Amino acid sequence: MDMHKYLDIAPEVAQAIAQGRPVVALESTIISHGMPYPQNVETALNVERIVRENGAVPATIAIIGGRLKAGLSPEQIEYFGKKGQAITKASRRDLAVLCARGMDGATTVTTTMIIAHMAGIRFFATGGIGGVHRGAETTMDISADLEELGQTPVMVVCAGAKSILDLGLTLEYLETKGVPVIGYGTDELPAFYTRRSGFGVDYRVDSPEELARIFKAHNDLGLKGGMLVTDPIPEEYAMPKEVIDQAIDQALAECKAQAIHGKQTTPFLLARVAELTGGDSLASNIRLVYNNATLAAKTAAAYCQE
Ligand code: PSU
Ligand code: MN
Fold first, then answer.
1. Of the N and C termini of the chain, which has fewer Cβ atoms inside 10 Å?
2. How far is CA 290 from CA 54, 63, 96, 228, 234, in A?
3. Which mutation among 28, 43, 109 tests ligand 1's pocket best, with the greatest number of atoms within 8 A of CB?
4. pLDDT in tens, 240-268
5. Which domains can be identified in the chain, with CATH numbers?
6. Model's pTM, two decimal places?
7. 22 exposure class (CB count in 10 Å sphere: 0-12, 13-18, 19+)
8. Is 27 a catalytic residue?
9. Ligand 1 atom closest to Cα of residue 192
10. In whole angstroms, what is the distance from residue 55 CA to residue 298 CA?
11. Tens digit of pLDDT for each residue in 168-196?
């Protein structure tokens, strides 16, 4: 087995890892499929700056020409942002084909975790994760992100999950897979655009230092899976629940009417919700990603002090 044969770690990232300094991984599907150009590029570059300002080295992860990249240049981020949906959304099942064929791929939460772990990175900040879709009891549409959280030891800092998903079933699945779901400063699972979902998390934690201690114990114990930290969107950027719920209901109805399925489902729903709610939801989305990048960087820094 020679997975490192396909891996390129940017020099700055490799040096930080070798010296035991904090590194935070960032995903590329959020750039190519999660936001429109040019806000996606601007956001990705700002997220890297925020990670640095909070004491860690950023490593945006993607697949370029069949190479697994941990750490992108600003030009490479621009390339992903411009190509947008034309880039293959790459989940676990796509990795081998993309590498063998020398193709590009935008990494989801799943593949960002895989490549981060391969590179030796333990922390990852993003917006929202995939989960159990509504109606999964008949469609069986469950994101590979949940399986990855069950097997790859990376801490994922997100703003919860959007209620395009069945949040209750998503929590059940994570429980089965042994993934601790932590609320940062909250007892309730945040629902991305809103701070509350009505579903409780497993544990509430109030500081990056305690998050770092818990993740240290997780790793010392050799527990193989990941840990999910859900960090609510800052109050001032949260969206009115009615506005979001209405957009989600409409997007779900259109998704069904157009018989969208498989890997297209999530990008379709995300794009429709964004269109239906206009610039407000994009602004909220950007702010919550900044918030998560800050927490992940502080936690990575605290972990390296342990
Ligand atoms: N949910 C969001 N924003 C996102 C995604 C999900 O609120 O950008 C992206 C992430 O890359 C996530 C992927 O890993 O979609 C999940 O896709 P699927 O449901 O097809 O597994
Ligand atoms: Mn799916």
1. N
2. 11, 23, 32, 17, 10
3. 109
4. 999 999 999 999 999 999 999 999 999 99
5. 3-305 (3.40.1790.10)
6. 0.98
7. buried
8. yes
9. 7
10. 7
11. 999 999 999 999 999 999 999 999 999 99
